[in-house]
Amino acid sequence: MTPEFLATSIVVILLPGTGVLYTLTFGLSRGWRASVIAAFGCTLGILPHIGASVVGLAALLHSSALAFQVVKYVGVAYLLYMAWSIAREGGALDVSDESAARHAGTSGARIVANGFLLNILNPKLSLFFLAFLPQFVPATALHPTATMLELGGVFMALTFVVFVGYGAFASAARRYVISRPRVMRWLRRGFAGAFGVLGVRLALAER
Q1: Which domain, by its residues, includes 169?
Q2: Does residue 91 have a pLDDT over 60?
Q3: pLDDT grade for 101, boundaries at 50, 70 and 90
Q4: Helix (H, G, I), strand (E, B) or coil at 22
Q5: DSSP tag of 179
Q6: Contact yes or no for 106/186 (Cβ under 8 A)
Q7: Residue 191: what pLDDT?
Q8: Mean pLDDT within 94-101
Q9: 3-state secondary structure of 46
Q10: How far from the centroid of its chain's Cα atoms is residue 4's Cα?
Q11: Which sign does the torsion angle of CA 77, 79, 80, 85 carry?
Q12: Torsion angle of alpha carbons 94, 86, 74, 22, nearest 10°?
């Protein structure tokens, strides 16, 4: 593991994407604990992509137009669903005290599962690992597969730490947002719009 790998990974993770938005959403709407659970789910969603890059499935996704299109449009549909869920009144980004009480019993497993799906349904992430991980595996490595798994594990750990940081920030701002309905309305529109834009970008993405 090199400083270049760590620096590149941190830059990539810090860039706002679906996982960041999902974690921020739960930090604002449900607080610190829910944001940590959301971060955990998004981090777990990286596992299949790491596995795909190790066994060569990412290369198949890259070479097969049909496989890429199927995964892509399922991901697009899910992103647009998230946009709708956030945009509607009383939806995923409802931060009122009444909403917190109403959703207090929501299963942590459901938060994890949705975060997992958000990342697993992103074919660009598999292609990212296809191009990213091999660059940091030395040509002289005796066990390249083990090295790739180690680097993937480090990437996941960094992802979880960064996402928890995003969630902590959102959780700290929660009371400010609750006391200002106008801010909440613009945040809801902004988050819904961001998920919608990500969905459109994925729909237009080429391999």
Answers
A1: 17-204
A2: no
A3: very low
A4: helix
A5: T
A6: no
A7: 67
A8: 51
A9: coil
A10: 23
A11: positive
A12: -60
| Position 8 in a domain | no
**160 located within any domain:** yes
5 within some domain: no
- Exposure string of 18-51, with b = 16+ CB inside 10 Å and e = fewer, is bbbbbbbbbbbbbbbebbbbbbbbbbbbbebbbe
Full-prediction pTM beyond 0.85? Answer: no
Q: How confident is the model at residue 37, as a pLDDT?
A: 93
User: Exposed (0-12), middle (13-18) or buried (19+): which is 198, by Cβ within 10 Å?
Assistant: buried
> Could you tell me if residue 6 is inside a domain?
no
Count of structural domains within the chain: 1
The Cα-based distances of 23 to 148, 149, 185 in angstroms read 27, 25, 18
pLDDT-based confidence at residue 162 (cuts at 50, 70, 90) = very high
The predicted structure's pLDDT at residue 110: 86
The mean pLDDT value for 16-31 works out to 82
Buried b (16+ CB within 10 A) or exposed e, 99-114: bbeeeeeeeeeebbeb
Average pLDDT, the chain: 75
Contact 192, 83 (CB under 8 A): yes
CB of 118 within 8 A of CB of 19? yes
Tokens 């597969």 appear where? 145
Quote the tokens at residue 164. Answer: 């928890």
